[in-house]
UniProtKB/TrEMBL annotation:
Domain KY-like immunoglobulin-like positions: 236-367, 388-487, 840-971, 983-1093, 1101-1215
Protein name per UniProt: KY-like immunoglobulin-like domain-containing protein
Pfam families, A to Z: Ig-like_KY
SUPFAM superfamilies, A to Z: Cysteine proteinases
InterPro entries reported in the protein's UniProt record: Ig-like_KY, Papain-like_cys_pep_sf, Transglut-like_Superfamily_Mod
């Protein structure tokens, strides 16, 4: 494909398409213009191609110095007439849609900002020209991003001459310069196609790059009004009247609905300010006195005198001023992006100055609730609830309040009343909530007139466990109707009647709706709750004058919304993603019991552990030590019950980590020795170390059981029924692990368990799959423990004794009952410890999950039952947390009888796995009807996982009831069942825009691009069932262009192909290449493809010496060139004198055509003029070595593959070039001679260091003359013809009779 330089010169909208005028610069540097209608998709692809294809980091010179021949010219100093300032026909999104297209440019700019440069010349070369940026948009962007990343207070240069660009750049830190002046200076040195060869943390605001004039006018007023670039420029008075608006205002799609001026006045101390928004957004606000910026009044924050209500695409703020005077009212916003890792902050968006004419007659702080936003919003909808009252205010004249929340999935509510001067206990008796199946009813009888806050807390049983989170609050006004009619909230009574079209006042331009079309302004977005608790702005540090962070410039504040009411661990909300989380419950549960808060004592201090040897004598218990059972059979233990929402669940998190380590270590040491009796064991294990904390007691027993070799237990005298008898029974199988805890304030629980011999879908009957475990009563809470499974992790699929080994599994120490229910079903349902008990039938249908399923935080997305019934292809999907990008998956498929092959092919080949966007997919196309087993495995690819071992996370039984026709084929025969990028892909720092493992062809062709951080070697293979690797070699090709590796596939026909990619770092890994990725190429077209030549891996493009010698491509950056003609000129740039040569090889015949390549040098550019004799594929191999190197062996530096599709003119060999010609010589003419014809020919050449130059035709000499004023250039006429040999010769020494032959014409 021919390489072009592309510049968009005109744009015109034609219906749904965009007509684009494009100037294309070909290898001959002739601008060809074309104009056609193209779609936005094509334009986006073109922009990405042009903006990204030239972004290769050129070989970085030491200290980032510009090459000697680089001489930037200041176009600002040339007094050229600039185009007049006309209003643009295009908006920002017409120029670029997604800031992500500048990702690699931005990364380069940030990298450059972190380095110092000796001169401005070095800086501009490093920033712009080293990356060979082509378009003015790219150049403007890289300067913008550098300026927003660079610490301008620390910039310095070696010399700062007066009037120089260095002086302009350093003037900023001296407060004599501006960013605008610096930007102009940098842009002044950008000339198209002329120069082509610590303590601060900075964040940039992309809003100010190519800002729409209608938005910028809110903060920037140009004195020369034509530079406002508006249809009607604003006067200074109009500009001063605008509200103070920050960039975040437009990022949230906000617009003004009620007040379009910056200074507003109250009426009788009240005002309602309303803004609209078109993107899901949260809001909060801040109020201060304008004269002293104080936000407190008589011990109350001023914000407590305002009510915020967020409705459908509007947010209203109603103020009842506590006193007359001036206030600053700042609105903060938080865009709900849903992105993980985004700072949970609110950012200042707009600010009013409010002048209160008097204090409001009903001025008082609002009830003290958790949030600053009133009314239902996004969290209510996310919980699947529909409230009967959608307004923030609930007026009542009789003190009765009634609310309904319809449910579309299981959810629970808790409600609280708040009123100044009344305690929570008094108000608790006045409110109730009742779950009526499909709805929850909230009712209240208010005790006296006044203002109340009604807070609603919600719980999603599928995700939140025991945590209730604040989801909304209402302002309840208990007063007679006439008092309600005079209340402050009536100020906003008609706010929903106004639309953004009313922003045009008196027929004048008003920028309030800038960037928001009428259609967008009326677009309804569900949600936008305030959800913001009191934000303490006093905690923010004062902004340093040099700090450029947005949170200081625009007053960003932390989001301190109250996340949870009872539990110390808040569960995240607001993602709005439907998912099934095992262990959080999935069915409706009644409201949990309300109990007092139980505080778990802090862990004790770490214990002293004595190291012991196997067989060492243990300490004996003192005579005074007596064992007293905690309870007898006659005594009743506390009844089983779920953990109340007000209780803290006992867990390892409640133990200090250092204490936990010493307790575990002590248990391990005790397990090494044998004790005479049970009394000595208990003394040694617990009482000798004075362990009194109940969690620590349970832990030390649990850890000892999980470590002790039970076959070594032996007591001297064993009475029947004694504790010694119980322990001895462990090694004979007469007792269970659960019985060891008997007498230690615990309960033995018996029931069914999904163990090693369990099969998904299996029915449980008495006597089969019986198991026992424990419930331990710890600090008022029943907790579960399975010491047997914790100590006996199973190897293999069958539960045979020799397959057990001793390894601790922490999961079974105090597991969550909501998770343990998937594998343990107690005979007595009460010991499920769940709010809603699970039936045996539900237990049998639950998926079979292993502890690692919960360890990795996995969720089911698609199939939630143990047995899958399939017809055709099956796609099992799991969700993994986005922060666990290092989780890798695998799977195996078997027939239910254990067979793993179908007609000699592994069943695994009928499945593929890929992970995209937090979803792990397992795509199966099973070959025949029948029953199968699917085992899914996962691992964390971390340094801690040294063994690189996958652990099983879940398993399914699949009943394939029908298969597609024709019979499904295995996936392509690549080495792994995981498709897409592998772990090595990310270890090498590779990146790609390809999101999925499936790539579809177009016209039988597909291309994959991978960004590379440094020079690397790649190899690609194409695979297909039924074809050999040799047959497919010519249909896959890879090469590196700049910082991108291209993989091109031309499929030989319809079908499914596997693309394997291997790579290495040649500087450290030699010639061994490693598997980094594999993709599936799907071709659904009938095509007839011509295979490409078979080339060695790494043959195409730059070779190792290319960058080492300081060479760069100028004309053809892609090593694959498709020609519609049979001639071309390739140019390279060099930074030191070079000796070069080239060879042209026809691929099919392996014939060399060295005389069809003409090499010459001018300035810092080496040219290779190629004339191709026939159509077909040719290899052009370039060789070079520095002139200072005496070696006669020139290494290969760059290889091209040329596809000549047409011979447009006859091809003649060039003159034979001798060694000295290739040392910097250049020929203007003639490059060819017809030596059979008669006549004079004008020669013009550049020959460095020549003393004399002559053309010899036969025996006749024609001396060329040096051109005056042009160094080393010679010109003259020579008579040629008659079939005489013609040579070009030069004399370099003192002997004028000694000439060296440079060229010989044939």
């Amino acid at each position: 494909m021919t390489q072009y330089s592309v510049r968009v010169t005109s744009l015109r909208l034609i219906e749904d398409d965009l007509e684009v005028g494009i100037t294309i610069i070909t290898h001959q540097n002739r601008p060809d213009k074309l104009k056609r209608a193209v779609s936005y998709k094509e334009i986006k692809s073109l922009i990405l191609l042009v903006s990204d294809s030239e972004l290769k980091p050129q070989q970085t010179r030491k200290k980032m110095q510009a090459p000697g021949q680089f001489n930037p010219i200041n176009v600002n100093a040339q007094q050229k007439q600039l185009p007049p300032p006309n209003r643009s026909r295009y908006r920002k999104f017409d120029i670029y849609r997604d800031v992500g297209q500048f990702r690699f440019i931005d990364e380069h700019a940030v990298e450059v900002s972190q380095k110092d440069h000796k001169t401005f010349r070095d800086l501009i070369f490093h920033l712009v020209y080293s990356r060979n940026l082509q378009s003015d948009l790219e150049k403007a962007r890289v300067i913008f991003r550098w300026m927003t990343s660079k610490n301008m207070y620390n910039i310095s240069f070696q010399d700062v001459p007066k009037g120089s660009p260095e002086e302009v750049l350093v003037s900023f830190k001296n407060k004599k310069g501006t960013y605008a002046r610096i930007f102009e200076t940098l842009c002044g040195y950008l000339i198209s196609e002329k120069n082509m060869p610590e303590n601060l943390v900075y964040e940039y605001d992309d809003f100010y790059f190519l800002t729409d004039p209608e938005q910028l006018i809110y903060s920037h007023w140009a004195q020369k009004q034509q530079w406002q670039l508006l249809s009607r420029p604003l006067t200074l008075a109009e500009f001063e009247d605008l509200p103070l608006v920050k960039s975040y205002f437009f990022k949230c799609g906000m617009y003004f609905r009620s007040h379009q001026k910056g200074v507003v006045h109250t009426k009788k101390g009240r005002i309602a300010l309303t803004v609209g928004f078109v993107k899901p957004t949260n809001f909060t606000y801040k109020i201060v006195f304008s004269d002293n910026c104080e936000e407190m009044y008589q011990g109350q924050k001023l914000k407590n005198f305002a009510l915020q209500e967020t409705g459908d695409n509007t947010a209203t703020f109603i103020l009842r001023a506590p006193k007359s005077g001036s206030y600053y009212f700042t609105i903060f916003a938080q865009l709900l992006t849903g992105d993980v890792g985004i700072k949970n902050v609110f950012t200042a968006s707009a600010e009013y100055k409010v002048i209160a004419d008097q204090h409001s007659s009903d001025s008082a702080p609002l009830p003290n609730c958790s949030d600053s936003n009133w009314g239902p919003g996004l969290p209510v909808h996310q919980l699947g609830l529909e409230p009967s009252n959608k307004n923030a205010v609930i007026p009542t004249s009789d003190g009765r309040v009634y609310l309904e929340f319809k449910k579309n999935r299981p959810a629970y509510l808790l409600c609280k009343l708040r009123k100044p001067g009344m305690s929570d206990d008094e108000l608790e008796r006045c409110i109730s909530e009742a779950d009526q199946g499909d709805k929850i009813v909230v009712s209240a009888n208010l005790p006296k007139k006044g203002e109340y806050g009604l807070e609603i807390y919600g719980n999603d049983p599928a995700k939140d466990g025991d945590t209730y989170t604040h989801i909304c609050q209402y302002f309840v006004h208990y007063a007679p109707p006439e008092e309600q009619a005079r209340s402050f909230y009536q100020e906003a009574g008609d706010r929903y009647m106004r639309g953004p079209d009313q922003a045009v006042v008196n027929g004048r331009y008003n920028p309030d709706t800038a960037g928001v079309s009428q259609q967008m302004a009326n677009f309804q977005i569900k949600g936008g709750p305030g959800g913001q608790g009191d934000v303490d702005f006093d905690d923010l540090p004062p902004p340093p004058p040099e700090m450029l962070q947005q949170q200081y410039l625009y007053g960003t504040v932390p989001d301190s919304r109250q996340q949870a009411l009872y539990n110390q661990q808040a569960y995240p909300r607001g993602q709005g993603v439907a998912g099934f989380t095992p262990g959080a419950g999935e069915v409706t549960m009644p409201p949990p019991q309300k109990a007092g808060v139980s505080n778990i004592p802090q862990s004790s201090t770490p214990i002293q552990v004595e190291k012991r040897s196997m067989g060492q004598a243990p300490p004996a218990a003192p005579e005074t030590f007596k064992l007293i059972p905690v309870k007898t059979e006659q005594e009743k233990s506390p009844p089983p019950a779920p953990v109340a929402v007000t209780h803290q669940k006992p867990s390892l998190e409640a133990m200090d980590q250092q204490v936990l380590n010493t307790v575990d270590d002590h248990a391990i040491q005790v397990s090494k020795v044998e004790h005479r009796n049970f009394k000595d064991l208990v003394w040694d294990l617990i009482y000798s170390k004075n362990i009194t904390n109940e969690i620590e007691k349970v832990r030390v027993i649990f850890r000892w059981l999980a470590t002790k070799n039970l076959h070594e237990i032996d007591f001297g005298n064993v009475d029947k029924g004694s504790p010694e008898d119980v322990l001895m029974g462990l090694k004979t199988g007469k007792t269970t692990y659960a019985m060891v805890f008997a007498g230690l304030h615990s309960k033995i629980i018996s029931g069914f368990a999904k163990g090693a011999d369990y099969k998904p879908g299996q029915k449980f009957t008495p006597g089969s799959n019986q198991h026992s475990w424990n419930a331990v009563y710890i600090y008022g809470t029943w907790c579960l423990i399975d010491a047997h499974w914790a100590a006996r992790r199973i190897i293999g699929k069958q539960a045979q004794t020799e397959e057990f080994h001793y390894q601790l599994d922490e999961y079974f120490f105090l597991p969550d009952p909501h998770q343990l229910i998937y594998t343990h079903f107690p005979d007595d349902p009460k010991w499920q410890l769940l709010e809603r008990q699970v039936t045996l039938e539900e237990f049998e249908n639950m998926p079979h999950m292993k502890p690692q399923f919960f360890k990795y935080g996995l969720e089911f997305v698609s199939h939630r039952t143990a047995v899958i019934f399939g017809r055709g292809e099956i796609n099992v999907r799991l969700r993994y947390p986005a922060h666990r990008i290092i989780v890798a998956f695998n799977f195996t498929i078997q027939y239910e009888n254990g067979d793993e092959e179908y007609r000699g092919v592994k069943l695994n080949k009928y499945g593929m796995q890929e992970s995209v966007g937090g979803i792990a997919s397992f795509r199966l196309r099973l070959p025949e009807r029948g029953s199968y087993m699917l085992y899914i495995y996962a691992k964390e690819d971390t340094p801690e996982n040294k063994d690189n071992v996958y652990a099983q996370v879940c398993e399914y039984k699949i009943v394939q009831e029908d298969v597609s026709s024709p019979e499904p084929e295995p996936f392509p025969p690549c080495p792994y069942t995981n498709w897409g990028p592998g772990s090595a892909f990310f270890k090498y720092g590779l990146k790609t825009y390809q999101q999925t493992a499936i790539i579809l062809t177009r016209d039988g062709k597909a291309e994959l691009q991978i960004r590379i951080p440094r020079q690397m070697q790649f190899m690609a293979k194409l695979k297909q069932n039924g074809r050999s690797d040799t047959d497919l070699e010519g249909y896959c090709m890879n090469r590196c262009v700049g910082n991108t590796a291209y993989f091109n596939v031309t499929t030989p026909g319809r079908g499914e192909y596997g693309l394997e990619i291997y790579a290495n770092d040649p500087t450290t890994e030699g010639t061994t290449l490693y598997h980094v990725a594999q993709y599936i190429i799907e071709c659904h077209e009938d095509v007839k493809a011509i295979p490409l030549p078979k080339l060695d891996p790494g043959y195409l493009g730059a070779q190792p010496k290319f960058s080492e010698f300081g060479l760069n491509t100028l004309s053809h950056h892609d090593p694959v060139i498709h020609l519609e003609t049979n001639s071309l000129e390739i140019q390279l740039a060099y930074s030191q004198e070079m000796r070069v040569t080239a060879n042209l090889i026809e691929v099919d015949t392996n014939t060399n055509y060295p005389d069809f390549v003409f090499t010459q040098t001018q300035g810092s550019i080496i040219s290779f003029i190629v004339s191709i004799p026939n159509t077909g594929f040719y290899k052009l191999q370039l060789y070079a070595i520095p002139s200072s190197d005496p070696s006669q062996n020139l290494p290969g530096v760059y290889n091209y593959l040329i596809n000549c599709q047409k011979v447009s003119k006859p091809a003649y060999p060039f003159p034979k070039q001798y060694a000295q010609w290739k040392e910097g010589c250049y020929m203007w003419h003639p490059k060819h001679l017809n030596i059979q014809s008669q006549g004079k020919v004008v020669f013009k050449v550049l020959i460095p260091n020549a003393k004399a130059v002559a053309v010899v035709a036969g025996d006749e000499w024609f001396h060329l003359k040096a051109v005056p004023g042009q160094h080393n250039i010679w010109e003259g006429e020579a008579s040629v013809g008659g079939g005489n040999k013609v040579t070009l010769n030069a004399s370099y020494g003192n002997d004028p009779s000694s000439y060296a032959t440079l060229l010989e014409y044939s």
